[in-house]
């Protein structure tokens, strides 16, 4: 048995078929393929791995400066522990964490990016000052790392002055904050805004 199709019905059928074909083509073009998903997953895994390496290298370098005078001061320990809040990562076991040598740090992935080298050296100067006064051995340690990176002593001195100015400028703010914390002995002000801004720029990507 054959059914006759009117012109109107035929037109509706053709339009509907074309609409379905266009929709299928659009879905094919815009929907992510398994290959695209895999590429995105690999890129994210690579980014996370890179950040993890940078963070661990940073902690090892900062501890190296902190213990350069032979003592891991409580203020230095508290500063490194406070980095958790900025980086939103668990702080490495500071007792077990092995300081990194200037040569190994200069051969690491940090050395590929001059802006990260500058940020890290400034962070190291911050650590040398955090316990109230700079021990000569601590800035000498910073100088050794700078030399390993190929940074001149003049540039290191300029970085040191910049950090010292940041410390000086933040003293009034820190004293005000500490005064506001009277009555809450568990609360503490650790580090300066400059330190945490450098840390974020170095370790976030």
Task: Give the integer mean of the pLDDT values.
Answer: 80
Radius of gyration: 28 Å
Q: Show unreliable segments.
A: 184-189
Order of helices and strands: HHHHHHHH
Number of strands: 0
Query: Quick one: overall form?
Result: globular
Portion of residues in helices?
Answer: over 70%
Q: Helix/strand-derived class? A: mainly alpha
- Could you describe the largest sheet, including whether it forms a barrel? none
| Number of separate helices | 8
Distance between the termini: 70 Å
Please state roughly what percent of the residues sit in beta strands, choosing from under 5%, 5-15%, 15-25%, 25-35%, 35-45% or over 45%: under 5%
Notable features of this structure?
205 residues, mainly alpha, 0% strand, globular
What does this structure look like?
Residues 184-189 have low confidence and may be disordered. The protein has helices at 7-30, 34-66, 74-87, 102-106, 114-129, 136-148, 153-180, 193-203. α2 packs antiparallel against α3, α5 runs antiparallel to α6 (136-148) and α5 runs antiparallel to α8 (193-203). The N and C termini lie far apart (70 Å). With 205 residues, the protein is mostly helical. It is globular, with a radius of gyration of 28 Å. The chain is built from eight helices and no strands.
């Amino acid at each position: 048995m054959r059914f006759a199709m009117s012109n109107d019905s035929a037109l509706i059928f053709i339009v509907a078929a074309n609409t379905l074909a266009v929709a299928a083509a659009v879905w094919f073009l815009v929907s992510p393929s398994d290959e695209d998903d895999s590429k995105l997953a690999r890129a994210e895994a690579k980014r996370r791995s890179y950040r993890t390496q940078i963070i661990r290298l940073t902690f090892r370098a900062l501890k190296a400066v902190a213990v350069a005078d032979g003592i891991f001061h409580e203020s230095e320990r508290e500063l490194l522990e406070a980095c958790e809040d900025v980086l939103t990562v668990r702080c490495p076991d500071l007792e077990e964490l092995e300081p990194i040598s200037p040569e190994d740090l200069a051969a690491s992935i940090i050395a590929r990016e001059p802006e990260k080298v500058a940020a890290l050296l400034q962070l190291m100067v911050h650590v040398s000052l955090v316990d109230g006064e700079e021990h000569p051995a601590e800035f000498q340690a910073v100088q050794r790392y700078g030399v390993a990176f190929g940074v001149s002593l003049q540039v290191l001195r300029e970085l040191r002055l910049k950090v010292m100015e940041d410390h000086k400028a933040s003293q009034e703010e820190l004293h005000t904050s500490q005064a506001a914390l009277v009555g809450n002995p568990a609360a503490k002000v650790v580090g300066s805004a400059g330190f945490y801004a450098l840390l974020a720029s170095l370790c976030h990507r």
